[in-house]
Amino acid sequence: MSTTSLPSPDRAAELRTALLAAGFTADGLLDLLGAPAYAALARSETVPALRATRGSDGPLASLVRLFLLQQPEPYVNAARALPLDAALADGWLRREEAADGGDTVYATVDVRPYGGPDGEDWFIVSDLGCAVGGAGGIGSREEGVVLGVGGASTTLAGITVRTPVASALDLGTGSGIQALHAAQHATRVTATDVNPRALDFTRLTLALSGAQEAELLQGSLFEPVGEATYDLIVSNPPFVISPGARLTYRDGGMGGDDLCRTLVQEAGAHLNPGGYAQFLGNWQHVDGEDWHDRVRAWVPRGCDAWIVQRDVQDVTQYAELWLRDAGDHRTDPAEYARRYEDWLDEFEARKTKAVGFGWITLRRSDAAEPSIVVEEWPHSVEQPLGDAVVAHFARQDYLRDHDDAALLEARFVLAAEVVQEQVGAPGAEDPEHVVLRQNRGMRRATKVDTVGAGFAGVCDGSLTAGRILDAIAHLVQEDPVVLRDRTPEAIRVLVEQGFLEPAEG
Length: 505
Fold this sequence. Notes:
Shape: elongated
Strand content: 15-25%
Radius of gyration: 26 Å
Number of helices: 20
Low-confidence stretches: 133-139
Structural class: alpha/beta
Mean pLDDT: 93
């Protein structure tokens, strides 16, 4: 798989026109296959889609069998769906001739419809059988294999800031998913990868999706770009913490979490002022060390940071996940056991008890006192989160510029779609505690006392925080000076977490 030649992108526009005409899109697949079979494809399960297309020789069914299910298709059927001479000549398909004239064609690459954020019809091109990686298990142990769309890819695309920029860098581009997204809002896109096949696949993905070309550079980390700087840097790097570097797409070849640390530390020097760098990553939970401190130490000088741990696995769970990813669980049991031991030996040597997964966002602020927020949030969120990322750093700027006295003179409004929940025994006169909950973005929840709940409830931008607290002090018969002294910290938390927003004007 990793040594086969790849198609030519020269006539990709002609092929794209045919794919769209046949309805070979995300919406078209859902209509043809139905929701259960469509969802099964995302889990690398093909039987439901095979059943759904059985007996149909229409163009869309033929394309599904060819490019998604990697099944042979009769030549005559493929000719109704594609400009077949061009597809064969450019290497998208190969033909097997039969003596009885019943020739068949096979796809040479996986071509997967992918819906853009604004309804665009895109196509992600990857190695056969490698559209989905991670927990689903691609079952390939070839070093140079290039994956297509997976959960990590869509997660990073969803959290990325999408403001228009002059320049963007997709570091470790793979099949080009992040570069494709960036091409919609960046004037100039650069994509790098240590694997030259990945750059070829990125070229195909961009061409078949009708996107602008990108500058494609081979090399590791920031080495290919020299001292160049960018407004946006994104990377879904080979972050897996493994013994050795068997698989290029996932194993970074550095010890432990050194690749993620190096990527984050070096990113600051490649960001323009105000620019963002956004990564997915793994980090070690080491005996005797707080993981918050570990990743906080990675943040480069001059950058604000927001680091969110989304999941933690103990070392046995982690090893099993990635052994399955490579298909090792289907090998000889003794070989599987040996590899499992290798993983556990590596973790034991590094005193690693668990591995965290999450998002890392840097913003080049050059602030004298950078804002570095490191938190754990394993709960559901509402994607896309790019706007929520921008809002997070705007709130950090606001709080950095406002001391407690300034907060009391400021006006606030309650954020949209915040609800209040009261928790207590049935029939009790007063609740045990009050929870404010967001229904958008990060979907945070926070406990507040009755003063905090009352304060948030009347924030409509008309009164200063100090005036509201004076009125509450009168109602609860508390000294207003004492209330003003102790409440700014609670206001700061509500602003930082997005429950309260500074009123305009």
